[in-house]
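Input sequence (480 aa), recorded before submission:
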Amino acid sequence: MPQTWQPKPPTPSPSYSTGWLGWARKNLFSSPGNALLTLLSLAVLLATLPSMLRWGLWDATWLGDSRKVCDSAAQDGSAGACWVFIKVRLEVFLYGFYPEAQRWRVNFTLALLGLAALPILAPTLLRGTLRQTLFALAAALLMLATFGMPCAIFTACYLLLPLALPPLVRQRPFLELFAGRLAGVSAGLFLTALAATLLYFAAGQAGGGGAAGPIAVTGAILVVFLIFVGRLTASAWRWILLFTVYPLAGFFLLVGEVFGLPLVETHFWGGLFLTLVVAGTGMATALPIGILLALGRRSTLPVIKTLCVFFIEFVRGVPLVSVLFMASVMFPLFLPENVTFDKLLRALVGIAFFYAAYMAEVIRGGLQAIPKGQFEAAMALGWPYWKMMALIIMPQTLRLVIPGLANNVLSLLKDTTLVAVIGLLDLLGVAKASMADTEWLGFTKEAYIFAALVFWVFCFAISRYSVYLEKTYHTSQHYN
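Predicted structure, token format:
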């Protein structure tokens, strides 16, 4: 009888090629050199990690509200960290010397920024109009429960406005209502001036006398986009609101003296709050300035190119400390006698222009990586320069330079500690000031470790998000 061939069942893979043994063989012991480095690293960890954990966790003092708790623990033989110091001084670390009764304004400003940035930073989570509407309503309810009715109304209007404007404008573009373009432009300018005037008087009547002018200007900018640009997506409107409405609302919320809010001068600002203000403002202003500088350096106009090259090379040749010193001490000497600028504002301007020079070089490298055919194709279509840059060249450029931009953002976040040289107390400055308190002398390690952990958390989050952007907008995913 013929025999039927039957295959044998597959044998399992060797244990040393799968599981944790396979991972260790591949990543830790793949060669004699890697094995030696792994063993040395394990030896260092075994020599240092137990004592660090014992000092920072096991023998540390966590409960209490005064130094006596830590002193009594030390007398009992517990030589661990005194985290009671961080617990007692936590609000100073976070808010600096901002008045305690007004710290809700800081919390609301940061919460609004997070809610406004979430649809921009993670668009896949809030895809679709219904999901975005529910998110706006849920955010308004959260603000109502936390900060009250005015904050909830403002949050709802801010988050729902980008969803309401695109359908409204797409149905009847303003300029198409007029037979002649000149008539449409004239009518648009008239409506812009009318809207700015109405906003000015409305803000003045509502108690925002000092904010009436900026509110009118911001409203005029939005009306110009609404009338003359017209067809913009909800995402584009979110970016516009983030760079127009949010800075205005955040400034008057934090400073006050309008709409019944008491004045809080900037020398009371400090801690992590000041660090985020300096870093966030620097990031938001340095990038657009850097884009303009990069385009100017590649310009064919000799005057513009020379000025941009001189500015970039000059700024990159001096340290940030000298820029801050010039902005704080020397710049007021060149102003008229009755003209003054806030110290924090001068520092923000100096940091923005300093990092704009570095971002300009990063963006210029991305521009040089764009194939020449992209420029020629846009010019063959008859597109003007700025339309070509905005719709074709710059999106590809920013996609290529994500790692370089993230590196500059991380450097900017850590360089905010240099504002201490001009008398502003950021997170590290407040930590140093807390260490000088006679009641808490001797707890330097706890203060520095806390500040380092806070900076590490923010830097690590930014780094991971940049990796997410690289994977999301990688060029291979956009070509068939």
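Checked by second reader. The chain has 20 helices and one strand.
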